[in-house]
Write a sequence for this structure.
């Protein structure tokens, strides 16, 4: 849901300057007024005035700063207000999840409910998710965090303008309008709840909180993100932004064709990556049955640890085909790094070497070994990305909170 | 070679306004001063003053305009000056070519020399190309066209900042510095000769003079361009601009992996598209030998016309694997259209149906049949793109010609 920006009392130039200050804080975590002035090119007087407005609006607060290697008394730093936050919510094929992300990027509450949503109707799933979202909101309130907006992320193509889930083959859902449901997740919130694709959100979480984050050395600003779930989702990050493509649906790496004689896929195609590297495909190849993904994953990890030949071959096959897709994607887009999340991260010890061998075979020299990274964010990645988008949306419209 | 813009006497705002006028003329071919004012948002007085400067600089000229459905006396139109132009030059695996493109987008001179450059050293090839370029310059002079700049396009990765051919596997050239050679192609020209990748230039030619051009209805502003040569080159056009990728080397569609068990490629990888759809691969699969590409192509077309089974199967196999690559590329980038040039365009009657079947198999519904187009520009496409880039470069620096 997108509210149109209200003109308010704040002029265009001041809006831009507010954005400069907040972008500086998002990148650096904390900064003194002097540092904000130096980075933004604004005068110290301007920065002080803007910060005063942002403190009044509850978006930032003061904190004491001591920095290594600097002399003199500790300065007064500015940080984003940890008492403001956004709701993150996720519907996935075999779980529902909610979380509370505060403005400093900390996940302060997180709840997951394992559940087979593929067999369920949207209404049924949303009834559960609304209950979970209410618990998250209660937890936020108990922790003194005001939720200003939120994000719901789903494993499928979304129309973010009209709040429609266009198609989620692994859920069996298509053409589901979600405006009313989004509103129910966080009733009365100032900035509403926005809809996003799960892999795209996880890719952004990696950018903001993982391998793309400043405190990790800003290593990756151009990378391919692949998330192993029941299927395989993806996101293409170029110049530290999600590359959405001309119609907003770029990054469908799970449906790149990695073997022209491969099996039929839920997307209607054949030989897609997710038929070799998705969780279901790996469990199938490893001969691991069972009802619950958690149990199957535990079984797989046990088998791998024991050196079981079939399990090892299944994961190595996934790594091999991941290499085919990454080689093709890097040839096409010139993106020189790859980050693997979701179940790929859990399988790193077995998947990593197979992926590296595959890349050396299909695109030697294209992606240096050091540019292959595994996500450390684990399961909450996607909802952290969805909530993080909401935080950025709120901060981008900070002028609406300045009276 | 890039000269740094000189500050000159023209201020920033006027530079921007000059660019507005010239962009309008590039898009529409011709326009009256009133139309240019309406499109640019400038006053008629400003437009008249800018046009006067551009006429003095020799970049535009007046022409009489009559428009269907408009009453009154014919207006005076403004067109880009057909007596100004750029040199286009191309080194390819089995030919050299030069051409003269005037500012209105007409190819006024074109010469091709069939030749195996794979076995040649760069110096030897450039000696020939410089001679050809001189003939093109003479032809331009004879036609009263002043060449202000030029573009050289090559089948490999290029570093346009340093004028280096990084790698052209099908030529067997790597790490070749070309600054001096570029200068020799058009000695003393005002804006120099720039270096480009052949498939990228052909993709831009398609945008400016082919399926992306306004007079074709502006159908495609987002498309994948694939050029069949000895290898397979590509370009990704997004929002009517070439998508270069974070390091300038995007669009290597010929080296996307279309069969993981496919043969070794010149790039060092395996199963690349060009091992199935490049000219050499098709001739090999069709059992057509011979020394000359022209003779082999004629042989292939004769065999196809006669319904020869092996030739037909070879081209259908190429179409099949083109479908695999296009499906994967469209999934990843969300680009909804594809334009096929080079020898793919020549093979359209046999290649088209196979490609459509393949896309229906691998990515049903993703690319509508109407969004699969074959280039009509034929062989000069790449050098038209290279020369067209030079024309745009000159027009973008028009202020340097205004004294």
């Amino acid at each position: 849901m997108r509210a149109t920006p209200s003109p308010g009392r704040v002029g265009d130039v001041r809006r831009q300057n507010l954005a400069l200050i907040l972008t500086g804080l998002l990148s650096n975590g904390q900064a003194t007024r002097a540092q904000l002035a130096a980075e933004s090119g604004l005068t110290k007087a301007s920065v002080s005035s803007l910060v005063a407005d942002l403190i009044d609006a509850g978006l930032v607060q003061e904190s004491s700063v001591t920095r290594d290697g600097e002399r003199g008394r500790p300065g007064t730093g500015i940080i984003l207000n940890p008492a403001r936050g956004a709701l993150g919510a996720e519907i996935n094929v075999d779980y529902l999840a909610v979380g509370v992300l505060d403005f400093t990027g900390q996940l302060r509450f997180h709840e997951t409910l394992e559940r087979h949503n593929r067999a369920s109707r949207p209404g049924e799933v949303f009834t559960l998710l609304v209950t979970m979202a209410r618990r998250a909101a209660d937890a936020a309130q108990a922790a003194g965090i005001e939720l200003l907006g939120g994000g719901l992320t789903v494993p499928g193509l979304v129309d973010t303008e009209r709040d429609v889930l266009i198609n989620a083959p692994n859920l069996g859902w298509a053409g589901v309008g979600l405006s009313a449901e989004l509103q129910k997740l966080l009733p009365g919130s100032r900035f509403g709840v926005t809809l996003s694709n799960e892999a795209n959100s996880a890719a952004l979480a990696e950018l903001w909180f993982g391998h793309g984050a400043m405190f990790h050395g800003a290593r990756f600003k151009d990378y391919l993100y692949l998330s192993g779930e029941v299927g395989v989702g993806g996101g293409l990050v170029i110049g530290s932004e999600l590359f959405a493509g001309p119609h907003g649906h770029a990054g469908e790496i799970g449906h790149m064709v990695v073997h022209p004689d491969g099996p039929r896929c839920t997307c209607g195609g054949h030989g897609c990556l997710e038929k070799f590297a998705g969780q279901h495909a790996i469990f199938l190849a490893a001969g691991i049955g069972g009802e619950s993904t958690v149990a199957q994953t535990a079984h797989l990890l046990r088998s791998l640890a024991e050196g079981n030949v079939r399990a090892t071959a299944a994961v190595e096959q996934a790594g091999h085909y991941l290499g085919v897709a990454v080689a093709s994607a890097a040839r096409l887009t010139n993106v020189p790094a790859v980050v693997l999340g979701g179940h790929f991260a859990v399988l790193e010890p077995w998947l990593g070497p197979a992926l590296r061998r595959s890349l050396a075979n299909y695109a030697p020299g294209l992606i240096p070994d050091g540019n292959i990274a595994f996500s450390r964010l684990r399961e909450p990645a996607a909802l952290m990305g969805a909530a993080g988008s909401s935080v950025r949306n709120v901060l981008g419209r900070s002028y609406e909170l300045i009276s």
In short: The mean pLDDT of chain A is 91.
